[in-house]
Design a protein that fits this description.
The complex is a heterodimer of chains A (269) and B (228). With 269 residues, chain A is α/β, with parallel strands linked by helices. In chain A, 40% of the residues lie in helices and 16% in strands. Chain A has an eight-stranded mixed beta sheet, with helices on both faces. Chain B has a six-stranded mixed beta sheet with strand order 6-8-10-12-15-16, with no helix packed on it. In chain B, strands 7-9-11-13-14 form a five-stranded mixed beta sheet, with no helix packed on it. Bound molecules: adenosine-5'-triphosphate and magnesium ion. Magnesium ion binds next to helix 1 of chain A.
Chain lengths: 269, 228
């Protein structure tokens, strides 16, 4: 049975799209047929991060409004045979998404895919609500700062009270914390909340900690999900998170400031 | 009496509303006072329904003066819905759209119906920012944290077996015996039977400690359980 995963946060610019792209690519890398949907109507950029913006012909709104068939709008990733992208529209506004339309698209996707990853827009309004409403699991993306944690707490409240699962009194949406843009140096100096601080406030299981990394910007400019950027810490951390999601045990990495090598220390670097 | 075919029911109920007492017709002074109170307890007062309690010396107020005063309250987002009993109340009832709330009658109503309905609530999950959880007919127990800006309310006691970071309002219908007990106190605001206190500066005397709050002689008393 297909699983619907929402990647959400409340606050904007914390790394939802970056995480949606890498998480979906990670699931595809592990052999699962995965679709990733951009719910950020009007501000689409998932297609940019995945490097398929030139291949967008139809989008989510076209499918919802019966202007195109689902398989016409789905874009198959060039690198990963198991990964498909359903882009958002750049020209329409958020009202073009309807609850029934979204449900129909998700039901159709469920027949074909193992995982459906929904990249939520920021905020707690309509777009974000439609992205999380059908979720089975939620990856809550949080930056280690008070305002991001507060907004995520609100989103968790909405998941627990207004999602379809909550409305139908079904088993609650399974929640995962993905802490991104983590900088152990700043935590050590007291300029950033630590993993434990965030866990204490939000009280949900930790799926992963993605370090602040220049590789993220480089790879999104190149249109490659950062998880494919071999050797970068962010890629390793995303791979760990995907493995944990699939039930494997992995130790948390990149939580301590990087120790400088002996040579660098000798050279005073 | 229940008549399901029309979807209506009539039941006796008691509400406790804040009562605004005043002894002169000075909308400006009233506005100033309301703003001051709002600053201290916006969460409690904003958009609240209130009763007006004009002092006895105001039993000759002119209808248009009364209207101006009601309007002044509304502009500050407090909504007068009736009059508290008192010497001037009859005159105000005759000269305004407000009706007298007969609290005395309600008390007798309660005496003649001794079956007090108690319905306690227990929550397993966190009460998160932006959420509100209420036990309207009894006590509320929360087995997890109450996040910053979240609100928990109960007619009777509130027990929190986690950290209270948000707001807790016990005895919301006037039960002065109600208590608030929490494992870890980091609250923004607590209130018992309408007596509230804001905590904008964390005081190491109680911050992060297990605390019991009760009302004694109209004063909130904060008691820290020190296990040492
Ligand atoms: N681990 C990271 N290290 C460094 N930069 C990052 C990291 N994660 C995300 N970023 C950067 O943060 C910015 C916002 O990321 P992204 O677009 O994924 O956020 P978003 O939550 O989807 O934003 P929006 O709310 O606008 O949809 C981007 O410039 C991205 O490159
Ligand atoms: Mg985004």
């Amino acid at each position: 049975m297909a699983e619907i995963i929402v990647v959400t946060s409340g606050k904007g610019g914390v790394g939802k799209t970056t995480s949606s792209a890498s998480f979906a690519a990670g699931l595809a890398l592990r052999g699962h047929k995965t679709a990733v949907i951009d719910f950020d109507v009007g501000l689409r950029n998932l297609d940019l991060v995945l490097g398929c913006e030139r291949r967008v012909v139809y989008d989510l709104v076209n499918v919802i409004q019966d202007e195109a068939k689902l398989h016409q709008a789905l874009i198959r990733d060039k690198r990963l045979e198991n990964l498909y992208i359903l882009p958002a529209s750049q020209t329409r506004d958020k009202d073009a998404l309807t609850a029934e339309g979204v449900e129909r698209v998700l039901n159709e996707l469920k027949e074909e895919f193992d995982y459906i990853v929904c990249d939520s827009p920021a905020g707690i309004e309509r777009g974000a609500f439609l992205a999380l409403y059908h979720a089975d699991q939620a990856v809550v993306v949080v930056n280690p700062e008070v305002s991001s944690v507060r907004d995520s707490d609100r989103i968790l409240g909405i998941l627990a009270s207004k999602s379809k699962r909550a409305e139908e009194n079904a088993e609650p949406v399974k929640e995962h914390l993905l802490l991104t843009r983590y900088s152990p140096e700043k935590v050590e100096k007291g300029d950033m909340l630590s993993v434990d601080d965030v866990l204490e406030i939000l009280g949900i299981p930790l799926l992963g900690v993605i370090p602040e990394s220049e590789a993220v910007l480089q790879s999104s400019n190149a249109g490659v999900p950062v998880i494919l950027q071999e050797g970068s810490h962010a890629a390793e951390a995303y791979k760990d998170a995907v493995a944990r999601y699939l039930g494997e045990e992995r130790e948390m990495r990149f939580l301590q400031p990087e120790k400088k090598g002996l040579f660098k220390r000798l050279l005073g670097g | 009496m229940s008549r399901p075919e029309c979807g209506c029911r009539l039941k006796a109920a008691r509400f406790s509303l804040p009562v605004l007492h005043f002894d002169r017709m000075d909308p400006q002074a009233t506005t100033g006072f309301i703003r001051e109170q709002m600053e201290r307890a916006r969460a409690l007062l904003e958009d609240a329904s209130i009763l007006l309690a004009p002092a006895a010396c105001l039993s000759k107020a002119m209808p248009d003066e009364i209207q101006v005063l009601i309007q002044a309250c509304r502009e500050e987002r407090l909504y007068p819905v009736g009059l508290a009993q008192g010497e001037a109340a009859e005159h105000w009832q005759a000269n305004s759209p407000l009706r007298i709330f007969h609290t005395g009658n309600m008390a007798t109503l309660e005496e003649s119906t001794p079956t007090v309905h108690i319905q306690n609530r227990c929550l397993q999950q966190m009460v998160r920012s932006g959420q509100q959880a209420m036990a309207a007919e009894g006590s509320l127990t929360v087995l997890a944290n109450v996040s910053a800006t979240a609100e928990v309310l109960a007619r009777d006691d509130i027990h929190i077996y986690g950290t209270l970071k948000g707001k807790a309002l016990a005895g919301i219908q006037g039960n002065a015996q109600a208590r608030i007990i929490c494992q870890r106190f980091e609250a923004e605001l607590v209130a018992i039977a309408g007596h509230y206190q804001l905590f904008d500066e964390p005081d190491p005397a109680w911050f992060g400690k297990p605390v019991c709050i009760s009302l004694q002689d109209d004063q909130l008393v904060l008691q820290v359980f020190d296990r040492h």
